[in-house]
Design a protein that fits this description.
heterodimer, A: 505 residues, alpha+beta, Immunoglobulin-like, eight-stranded mixed sheet, five-stranded mixed sheet, B: 484 residues, four-stranded antiparallel sheet, 4 strands, 63% helix, 8% strand, elongated, oxidoreductase activity (chain A), Cupredoxin (chain A), oxidoreductase (chain A), EC 1.-.-.- (chain A)
Chain lengths: 505, 484
């Protein structure tokens, strides 16, 4: 039986069932009110994005708004899967290749400065114990480099000769491995196999030529130090800018840690993880990737979790897999994806045209990675008329428990599945929401972003300018509402409630 | 040939396949039958997975024997009598029978002293002598009066001896007062501690109820199974029984206190401070004070003086008293008035009271050893009491200084962590239980400290309802009509 026949049979059966009311009774709703499944897909997208939204091309740009049916300003696929422009595959960004590679940006991480010494780019790298604020108020003890975890980004150009003066400020031996680079074996950093340990207080110098281009990273070659956070980007820009050129080049390092309650020291021996960070911060403290409508965006994702692979999913866009840490993939082998599994110690490059304005989730799809320090949802937080504050008010006599449990939810096995509880203090809310990258998002957007999550914000030029290039106050929901007005249907939009101090999240 | 071989192989394969299929069929049949039998054996409702609404309910309160006569809820009754240490001590002072007994021992000994010092009465006799002489009514018909004159200060010594015994009785009466007040205080502390523990048992019971509810919440989320729900019910009921046991303990303590006090006490609340104020001195200092001041030691030392007097008394016993007698009469033979006169004295030729003197000397020596025995016995009892006191005080101090504050802080941290969504509620319940249980343990430690402190400060005298002791052990030399 063909698929068409299958579908037809299903629709017929569904109609009959609806007519007799059987399914309607079972589901408790009027099935007849449902529209039939549309068989004609034409015109599906025209309703989604208002025709009144007509983004303008930058005056100085020579690229086009549309190539072969693919538009950089609205969700589209193009006319031909075999076209170079299908899903925006080869659609150039606004930035010309002649301007060189787009500046690499790893949100919340600094770049490692260098100085030229005899034609060599010389970097000072200091392995050390550091504190990192995963969430506002949650300052965790980990290891990193130069006061940062992950370490600062090393950025060079293909063909450079580099020198790393590594001074160990840890109280134990360490080694630095230049992950993925084809260098003389004596500089590989593999403990004992290639070099003596860098003792505490000692300095070791690595020097080699970089003939590769692409996404690499450096890390300690002591496993527990790796699990304790010792990693950083090593970005090698190609001599010849990749085609097509991108406007944005972001880097996100995904990591996991186990840190017990009432504790701020990571336990690298643990086989389980309860804290998840992107560039050293947990959602919603991760910094959104903010881009302009129509730009070509590259996101490099590196998974440095100790034992967990991460299926990375981007909402609202289809991206091309353009490279892994080994090398840039030839165009012919690029793959369009919505979700890509990034394995441990792998880096993957995604590219796409930001043609769908809005605030889009960008996250690991593992359910337990979409939250921090998750716990069983039993006890006062799910009981009626109780609060942990009542217990805290008098430690010497606890409130009685209501054993009758009036909550009708308990009639449903599995209730509750929603995480309930954690309060955000005013200071925490202020710190998260006061960053310009967060401004104008839908009220209480913070509640949606946990653990290995961040957001991709695609804004029209004027909104981008107001949020990112001025000091103007931007109210919660202001940008999101404006985007719905321009590209959606504002009459069917609920603007949400503003987040109040002490609100549960 | 080849074709025949092929046919043979096909036939063999078919047979094997058929046989294995039959075997498999049989084996499957057996398994199915086993499954069915297992299903049948698992037929009970309790073996099924139940919806939350059909879970075994939380157990009812224990409904067996209840101590109804004394059931009370004094928290709701403002008029109920509150017992304090001062009130029960005052009641005991007036009503404990052994204190009266001890006082009567003193009176009895002073009475003996009175009796022992009384001078012997004169004896009046009618005398008829030589009746029939010369056919007369007698040569002497008349009255004589005799009087025994006690020598060597026997009466004074006897009176002194019993006065000294009265003094022993006074020490023993003080000891008896200590026995009673110690017993009252120890029992009051027992009741006070039980009432405090009862409050904490009620807290732990709330936690056990929470544990049962929490397990049901976990069941609903697939995080606990039916077995865990049942076990949580059992834990709850066991805790309720623990609380009831403490209630019984409290009633027991009040009833025992009531017995020592000597009047009925209502089953009401007790009030007082369980926490000790000062630590005792070193063992040697405490022992020195006990030996110097203990009424027991003072009594046996006083008894030594009794025995010394007894020896002196017995040593003069052999010195003869002088009896003088005489009186007027009429001589019917001669028809004239006549008089009789005589002096009587015992000659201590054979009996010089040697045996009794020796016995008294033995008693005296025995009493010297008795002093030593009592002192050693005090040391022995103090050693045990001091150890219990020291251990309890060390524990209570460290519980006060470290254990309770740390567990309290841990419990608080658990609550804060729970509030932050960083730990599960069962962890908080565990911390809560640990905190309340440590406080219960500390109450027991304070109880031991206060009870041992009471005993040590009360000269280790116990037995508030034991009969009050007399000044001498039974069988002492008291077996004469006139005490001496």
């Amino acid at each position: 039986m063909s698929n068409t026949e299958d579908r037809r049979r299903f629709l017929t059966a569904g109609s009959l069932a609806a007519a007799t009311g059987v399914v309607g009774n079972l589901l408790g709703r009027n099935v007849q009110a449902q529209e039939p499944m549309p068989m004609d897909m034409k015109g599906m997208s025209s309703h989604q994005h208002g025709e009144h939204a007509t983004p303008q091309m930058p005056a100085d740009s020579e690229v086009q708004a549309e190539y072969d049916g693919y538009s950089r300003f609205k969700p589209s696929r193009g006319n031909d899967p075999n076209s170079d422009y299908y899903l925006g595959k080869m659609m150039p960004g606004f930035r010309p290749a002649s301007d060189g590679p787009a500046p690499f940006e790893a949100p919340d991480l600094d770049k490692l400065p260098y100085k030229m010494v005899g034609g060599v780019k010389e970097f000072q790298l200091v392995p050390m114990a550091v504190k990192r604020e995963f969430l506002p108020g949650y300052e965790m003890n980990v290891y990193g480099y130069n006061g940062s975890m992950p370490g600062p980004t090393i950025e060079v150009t293909q063909g450079d000769r580099v020198r790393f003066v590594v001074t160990n400020e840890l109280p134990e031996d360490t080694y630095v491995h230049w992950h993925g680079l084809e260098l003389p074996v004596q500089w590989d950093g593999a403990s004992e196999l290639c070099q003596e340990p860098i003792k505490p207080g000692e300095t070791f110098v690595y020097e080699f030529d970089v003939h590769e281009e692409g996404t690499f990273f450096y890390h300690s070659h002591v496993p527990m130090q790796e699990a304790f956070g010792m990693v950083g980007w090593f970005i090698v820009h190609p001599k010849k800018v990749f085609d097509p050129p991108v406007d944005r080049d972001f880097g996100l390092i995904f990591q996991n840690f186990f840190i017990d309650s009432s504790q701020n020291i990571a336990d690298s021996w643990k086989m389980d993880w309860n804290w998840h960070t992107i560039n050293g911060r947990s959602g919603p403290y991760t910094t959104p990737l903010v881009v302009k409508h129509g730009e070509r965006v590259r996101v490099r994702i590196m998974n440095f979790a100790p034992m967990q692979h991460h299926p990375i999913h981007l909402h609202g866009h289809t991206f091309w897999l353009t490279g892994r840490e080994g090398a840039r993939t030839p165009h012919s082998a690029w793959i369009p994806r919505n979700t890509e599994l990034v394995g441990i110690a792998q880096a993957t490059d995604f590219e796409f045209i930001a043609n769908n304005p809005g605030d889009w989730m960008f996250h690991c799809h593992m359910v337990h990675h979409m939250m921090n320090h998750m716990t069983e949802q039993v006890g006062p937080r799910m009981r009626r008329n109780t609060s942990v504050d009542d217990y805290l008010a008098n430690l010497d006599s606890r409130p009685a428990v209501d054993s009758t449990r009036q909550d009708p939810g308990f009639g449903t096995p599995g209730y509750p599945q929603e995480m309930k509880g954690m309060n955000m203090s005013d200071a925490m809310m202020q710190k998260i929401g006061s960053r310009r990258e967060m401004m104008g998002m839908r009220p209480m957007a913070e509640m949606a972003v946990m653990g290995l999550m961040t957001t991709l914000r695609v804004m029209p030029e004027d909104l981008y300018h107001k949020v990112m290039e001025t000091d103007d106050l931007v109210e919660p929901g202001e940008v999101f509402t404006e985007i719905v007005k321009r590209f959606g249907d504002i009459s069917k939009y609920n603007s949400g409630k503003k987040m109040m101090p002490g609100m549960k999240m | 040939m080849k074709r025949r071989l092929l046919h043979l192989l096909i036939a063999l394969t078919a047979t094997t396949t058929y046989q294995s299929a039959v075997a498999q069929d049989a084996s499957m049949g057996q398994m199915m039958s086993m499954d069915r039998s297992m299903t049948q054996s698992l037929g009970g409702v309790d073996d099924q997975v139940l919806p939350e609404s059909d879970l075994p309910p939380l157990p009812d309160m224990p409904s067996g024997f209840a101590d109804f006569d004394t059931a009370y809820d004094y928290t709701d009754n403002a008029t109920v009598e509150i017992h304090t240490l001062e009130t029960v001590l005052a009641l005991a002072a007036g009503n404990n029978p052994t204190i009266q007994q001890a006082r009567l021992h003193v009176s009895a000994e002073t009475s003996k002293a009175l009796q022992a010092g009384l001078y012997p009465n004169p004896v009046l006799m009618y005398v008829g002598e030589k009746i029939g002489s010369d056919g007369s009514a007698g040569e002497f018909q008349g009255f004589e009066v005799s009087q025994r004159f006690v020598t060597a200060g026997k009466l004074q010594l006897s009176r002194l001896k019993y006065r000294q015994r009265a003094h022993v009785s006074e020490h023993l009466a003080i000891a008896q007062t200590y026995r009673v007040t110690n017993a009252v205080e120890v029992q009051f502390i027992e009741a006070l501690a039980a009432s405090m523990r009862l409050e904490l048992q009620r807290e732990i019971e709330k936690t056990a109820e929470d544990g049962a509810v929490t397990t049901r919440e976990q069941y609903n989320q697939g995080q606990a199974n039916l077995t865990a729900v049942r076990r949580a019910n059992v834990m709850l009921q066991k805790q309720r029984l623990e609380r009831m046991a403490t209630e019984n303990e409290y009633r027991d303590a009040l009833r025992r206190l009531s017995a020592i006090v000597g009047v009925p006490l209502s089953i009401g609340p007790t009030e007082g401070e369980l926490r000790p104020s000062n630590a005792l001195e070193s063992f040697d200092s405490v022992l020195s004070r006990l030996i110097l001041e203990s009424p027991e030691v003072l009594a046996v030392r006083a008894k030594l003086r009794v025995d010394q007097t007894t020896v002196r008394r017995e040593q003069v016993e052999w010195i003869p008293d002088i009896t003088i007698q005489g009186g007027p009469g009429y001589n019917f033979s001669n028809g004239d008035d006549v008089y009789n006169a005589g002096v009587q004295i015992e000659l201590p030729i054979y009996d010089r009271n040697q045996g009794t003197i020796r016995q008294a000397c033995q008693d005296l020596r025995r009493q010297q050893f008795e002093i030593q025995r009592i002192e050693l016995h005090l040391k022995e009892r103090l050693a045990s009491a001091y150890r219990t006191y020291a251990t309890a005080l060390q524990h209570a101090t460290e519980y006060d200084r470290v254990v309770i504050p740390e567990l309290r802080a841990a419990y608080r941290q658990l609550l804060v962590s729970y509030k932050d969504n960083r730990i599960a509620w069962p962890d908080v319940l565990e911390g809560q239980r640990d905190y309340f249980q440590a406080r219960m343990e500390q109450i027991d430690q304070f109880k031991h400290v206060r009870q041992q402190e009471t005993m040590i400060n009360g000269f280790l005298l116990d037995g508030g309802l034991m009969a009050a002791e007399g000044p001498v052990p039974p069988g002492h030399i008291d077996a004469v009509a006139k005490p001496r």
